Amino acid sequence: MNIEKYPSKLLENAVNEFSKLPGIGRKSALRLVLHLLRQEASEVSAFGNSLIQLRNEIKHCKVCHNISDTETCQICANPSRNNSVICVVENIRDVMSVENTQQYNGLYHVLGGIISPMDGIGPSDLEIESLIKRVGSGEVIEVILALSTTMEGDTTNFYIYRKLKGKDVKVTTLARGVSIGDDLEYTDEITLGRSLVNRVNYENSLGK
Length: 208
Hints:
Layout lengths: L8 H10 L7 H12 L3 H17 L1 E2 L6 E2 L5 H4 L4 E8 L2 H10 L4 E5 L18 H8 L5 E4 L5 H14 L5 E4 L15 H9 L2 E2 H4 L3
Parallel strand pairs: 3-4, 3-5, 5-6
Antiparallel strand pairs: 1-2, 6-7
Helix pairs in contact: 1-2, 5-8
């Protein structure tokens, strides 16, 4: 077994922390740390301070649960957005993906995950009840289920659909231009945009 030898405990500690990031192995972590060591101290301080400030000051929108610098995010606070349509997504990255299509002008609801019994994630761990309350306000006429087309995503879609059944709201889902098993964030903007525009009633998708 090859055990890495570091000339400095400080270097080793920094590599250990970087290697905790997703997709970063120890070799990549070492390369990043050595890069930072070559930078001016002021640049490294700015880098570190930006992460500390992000962690300490970032907020979650009290309406849709998107990340925000303020109590209400820019999307929810924008009077030009259509507040009668809510697009339900798994996470913040999906909001960014849908926004990049420039095909959607409604609001969002970030669940914070999807139902996954294998990972111990149930409906109560997600922002589902707050979605039901938003729909119950009477202003929402359509809910778009825009979750990943995986087994977990489909399970979550169906759970939300059942919770909304009987309420005076149209429930739609993305057209199947998004391939089965794909995560929303990895779908190209044109395909995702077309899937939004050509969305279908959720009930009709159940038989397919």
